[in-house]
Amino acid sequence: xxxxxxxxxxxxxxxxxxxxxxxxxxxxxxxxxxxxxxxxxxxxxxxxxxxxxxxxxxxxxxxxxxxxxxxxxxxxxxxxxxxxxxxxxxxxxxxxxxxxxxxxxxxxxxxxxxxx
Length: 116
Hints:
This protein has 5 helices and no strands.
């Protein structure tokens, strides 16, 4: 599955949580569907919070903090909102992805940074 399709699925599934209005969410959702194709149906079992964070950062279950940081930096270079300043819908999607990446990185730094 391509990177854009995976991130499109992540963004589409989390667009309801975004702080801007309903019309913006619907337009961003339809944009992500058009950009990445139709999202896959939801799985039967919902993944745990750590599994979601690992999926957001595209790392495996045994990734070290260094590997997680490399993946985070690579994805932030690609999806930072400042790189999508000309297209408002892409900027909103990139902002949502960047928020998810930051949340996941904070989780892993607090977890792995303490030596757990």
